[in-house]
Amino acid sequence: MIAARAHTRVQAVAQTLKTRLKPTPLNQSRSSATNSSPPTKTWFENARQILRQSAVGRLAGSYAQVQARYPYRTQVCSILVVWLCGDLSAQLLFPAQTNQEQSEAKESTRLGGNHDRTPISSYDPGRTLRHLTVGVVASIPTFKWFMLLQRNFNFESKLASILTRVVVQQLVYTPIFNTYFFSMQSLLSGVSLNDTIKRLKLTLPTSIVNGMKVWTGVALVSFTVVPPQFRSVFSGCVAVFWQTYLSWMNQVAAVAVETRGPGSLKVAPGIHFKTSKGLASE
User: Where is the composition biased (Basic and acidic residues) (predicted)?
Assistant: First the structure.
């Protein structure tokens, strides 16, 4: 019996060695090596992985968790921060005129002087409050708009989907938002409805054309690589610079409507606004 058991064990060991030492066909060996090797990552995937592992990536991950739990609160708080930065930069570069300065501008214009530049004034907290009010009111509708675009216009071609969203964004959202922005800024400043319409006629066409030049590229990046829940914040970060431009246009419109008679108002090199009886047009 002992001899039989020993013989069985010897046969098992021999069979195991035979299996392990059996030569593998060349094609099968190459196939196994190919399957076992990790897939090659693109530079974009490598960059995304590095970004996720960085401090910025961890912060974005924490933000995403809060965003998933409290989407509306997160949007409002984010927009408050972004628009505050935009207003502070705008006031630093293009400060508002005080009533005294506006009176001096009108008097200078009446006497035929040149008062195209806005004097430097102190910080205006009311202007910041108006700016933040405009941003908070628009935060949730903007968030819902980006989510709506994400749920729709999904074609078989990813490129067709992205381009369609960009076109819809520029043709629908941009004119509506710019109209809302300039109207609210004017009305919250205590300007009459008639003068608000004059400001819109001055600022809206130029802002829409220039907005298409800037935001078409931003929208392409947003719809291509930015998750939908982050798109309003991403746009808001870019808007820090854009709102500085809008604030400048809003201030130019205010000066044009309030201080200019018939003539031409030079607002930048190569850019003039013709005014007639207080009505400004490009």
Answer: 103-118
Q: Is 254 exposed, middle or buried (0-12, 13-18, 19+ CB in 10 A)?
A: buried
d(C-alpha 140, C-alpha 146), whole Å: 10
Look up residue 133 and give its amino acid: T
The SS3 of residue 46 is: helix
- DSSP annotation of 169 reads I
Distances (CA, A) of 136 to 74, 83, 133, 148: 11, 9, 5, 19
Distance CA(267)–CA(207), nearest Å, equals 14
The span from the CA of 231 to the CA of 223, in Å, is 8
- Looking at residue 264, what DSSP letter applies? E
Determine the Cα–Cα distance for residues 233 and 257; give it in Å rounded to an integer. Answer: 33
Q: Write the pLDDT tens digit of every residue in 83-136.
A: 888 888 878 877 665 555 555 555 555 555 554 444 445 788 998 899 899 999
- Residue for token pair 């746009």: 235
- Which residues does 187 contact at the CB level (< 8 Å), separation at least 6? 193, 196
What is the Cα–Cα distance from 115 to 92, expressed in whole angstroms?
20
Cα–Cα distance for residue pair 239/83, rounded to 1 Å: 8
Task: Indicate the burial class of 124 (C-beta count within 10 angstroms; 0-12, 13-18, 19 or more).
Answer: middle
Structure tokens belonging to residue 250? 């809003």
